[in-house]
Write a structure and sequence with these properties.
alpha/beta; D-Maltodextrin-Binding Protein, domain 2; globular; BUG; Tripartite tricarboxylate transporter substrate binding protein; Bug_dom1
């Protein structure tokens, strides 16, 4: 699907100016736009949200203010967005975790992304990354599997939260590799990263953007990415399928990031935002900036993203149910 969408993007005439956005409603925007970031500062979603906000603001003369609303696996911020007025002044950078997994995971949620949100623009996708401290005895993912089979549950890993796509990617890896690891959930990737660097937790399972800074500085050792292809930001890091571990030959799990708004947001505002995000993603500067954070830029039309969101939402129901993870 990604290849078809990338091919479609190449045919889209994206030489679009900021003036086109001014046709979105009566002089919209006339005040700052709030970008809800459903995770703490410093994590992958926060980094991308602030990057997109800054570049959209520069290109269009808009003021977009990032507003971190972490908690409940990233669904707290999305719940706040659902309740916001659909006037084009409240948007969020969501992802697989809180948009398509959270509604199946948290029984108390009263919304779903298809009925209660408007898909605005797909921004990027990223493999999940498994890494460890540079001081760790684990040199490869195969080393981790060997240790875990020798001492079930002794190897620990931190994730950005219970039931997130990153946690479930690790769960799927455990199943495929036939090992038992001990999961330690955190409120976001950054606090998990701190504990891994301190040697309190063995492994960090995170997005690439959340870890690449510490990898580049030599503090983290990357072990594997979960996608079918290597990350362009970490070309020397093998995929799980390349790690020489029995049972994981076709392993492929990625996360993605996209802009959403409350249901009922004016169509002309949604079109303007989608147009400007896609124009931004077409620039070499933005592509490099996103890849530097370990993600891969990927534009979609509003209709394509809405279809993608609905299909992924339906697909992850079975994965969540099979994991046995449910939160009241």
């Amino acid at each position: 699907m990604f290849k078809k969408l990338l091919a479609g993007l190449a045919m889209m005439g994206l030489g679009i100016t900021a003036a086109m956005a001014q046709g979105a409603g009566a002089n919209w925007p006339t005040k700052p736009i709030r970008m809800i970031v459903p995770f703490p500062p410093g994590g992958g979603t926060d980094i991308l949200a602030r990057l997109v906000s800054a570049k959209l603001g520069e290109a269009n003369g808009w003021t977009i203010v990032a507003d971190n609303k972490p908690g409940v696996g990233g669904t707290l911020g999305i719940t706040e967005l659902v309740r916001a007025a659909p006037a084009g002044y409240d948007i969020a950078l969501g992802q697989k975790d809180n948009l398509v997994i959270g509604p199946w995971l948290y029984k108390s949620l009263t919304w779903n992304p298809v009925n209660d949100l408007t898909a605005v623009a797909h921004v990027a996708y990223s493999p999940v990354l498994i890494s460890t401290s540079a001081q760790s005895p684990y040199k490869t993912l195969a080393d981790v599997v060997t240790a875990a089979k020798a001492r079930p549950t002794a190897v620990t890993y931190g994730s950005p939260g219970n039931g997130t796509s990153i946690h479930l990617a690790a769960h799927l890896f455990e199943q495929a590799a036939g090992v038992q690891l001990t999961h330690i959930p955190y409120r976001g990737s950054n606090p998990a990263l701190v504990d891994v660097l301190a040697g309190n937790v063995d492994l960090l399972v995170s997005s690439v953007p959340s870890a690449i800074g510490q990898i580049n500085s030599g503090n983290l050792r990357p072990l594997a990415v979960t996608s079918a292809r290597r990350s362009s930001s970490l070309p020397d890091v093998p995929t799980i399928a390349e790690s020489g571990i029995e049972g994981v030959g076709d392993f492929d799990v990625s996360t993605w990031y996209g802009m959403v708004a409350p249901a009922g947001t004016p169509a002309e505002v949604v079109r303007a935002l989608n147009t400007q995000v896609n124009a931004l993603l077409a620039t070499p500067e933005m592509q490099k900036a996103i890849q530097a954070q370990g993600a891969e830029p990927l534009a979609m039309t509003q209709t394509e993203f809405a279809t993608f969101l609905q299909q992924d939402y339906e697909a992850w129901r079975g994965i969540v149910e099979s994991s046995g993870v449910a939160i009241d």
